[in-house]
Amino acid sequence: MAAKKQLTNKFKAEYAKGTKKQKGEVLDRLEAVGMGRSTARRLLTQAVAATPREPAKRGRRPRYGRDAQMLLERLWLLMGMPCGPYMKAMFAQWIPALQANGELDRVDDAALGQVLSMSPATIDRRLRKLKAAGAPKGMSLTRPAPEHVRNSIRIRKCADEITRLPGLAETDTVAHCGASARGEFARTLTMVDYATNWTVNVTARNNAKSNIRAAVETAIPLFPFPVTCFDSDNGTEFINDELIDWLQQRDIEQTRSRPYRKNDQATVESRNNHVVRKYASYWRYDTQEQRDLLNRLWTLTYALLNLFTPTRKPVR
Residue 49: which pLDDT band, with cuts at 50, 70 and 90? Predict the structure, then answer.
């Protein structure tokens, strides 16, 4: 077959330009050397067929260049790694501030314009690979409190109607144990106001009830309004006599979520990931120096989250 193709390729130009009579003569010559007439016609037709063009690339041309992509990633890190809708809403406040402080002096205006024109969905799509670069999982070390103690505290469900007034603080802790739960390691207490999303973080030595009570005592004055309700999960660090008495003395109502129903505390659960894990990662912290470092970090994120970051869902 290869020899037949080579032979017909010699006559392809003549066959393509020839009249009907001339094409018949080419076929006669190929038939004379032992090639079937129909085979010769088929190979000559294939030989003179137009060279297939490369298929056109589907989709639109890239609208955003490499400079815009690099600038987007840099802004995302500077702004605290927000999601697309939050990042889009933050541009109006952050871009002028960054420009005033010289952070964008060497940035191309065209690249900046492309970033500012991106939609929230485009921002999320173009940051997907960077966000997925490292996504480790933590360990859940919550131990339920005794049933008779839990039953003394009212349950608050996610479907309950709640007056959206400041004062209801959802509370949880995150364990900084790294890859092993052995030994002593730090815990970060997170309190989030349900109505305003005002967020406070305090790191304690461990989850002993005295340490968690001391962390709560430190966190509550950091809210700009009175805390009237303390809502937590069913862990022993919250459901214990020391913290219950402390809250009662200050006329702060205590409620709890249902076991294994994280939606009852969706607000604080989101902060565990988007604040504590985002900034402190999944490393192990077990020394006084490391705990002091974390509390210094929470002092900075306190201003960043509560004063410079949207806390409610942006309206598109």
Answer: very low
Q: Rounded to whole angstroms, how far apart are CA atoms 270 and 268? A: 5
Contact 217, 131 (CB under 8 A): no
pLDDT in tens, 282-316: 889 999 999 999 999 999 999 988 988 877 665 65
DSSP-based three-state secondary structure for 172: strand
Q: What is the pTM of this model?
A: 0.63
- Which has the closest alpha carbon to 140: 301, 241, 273, 279? 273
Tell me the two tokens of residue 275: 């604040």
The predicted-structure confidence for 167-193, as pLDDT tens digits, reads as follows: 999 999 999 988 888 889 999 999 999
CB 186 within 8 A of CB 204: yes
DSSP character string of 11-80: THHHHHH--HHHHHHHHHHHHHTT--HHHHHHHHHHHHSPPPPPPPPPSPPP-S-HHHHHHHHHHHHHTT
Element (H, E) at 187: strand 187-193
The phi, psi pair for 78, rounded to 5°, reads: -65, -35
Chain-centre distance for alpha carbon 95: 21
Cα gap 9→113, rounded to integer Å: 55
8-state DSSP, 238: T
Look at strands 154-155 and 168-175 and give their pairing. unpaired
Token pair recorded at residue 265: 């505390």
Q: For residue 154, what are the β-bridge partners?
A: 255
| Rg over CA atoms, the chain | 34
| Mean of pLDDT over the chain | 84
Token digits of residue 79: 């702004």
For residues 227 and 218, the answer to whether their CB atoms sit within 8 Å is no
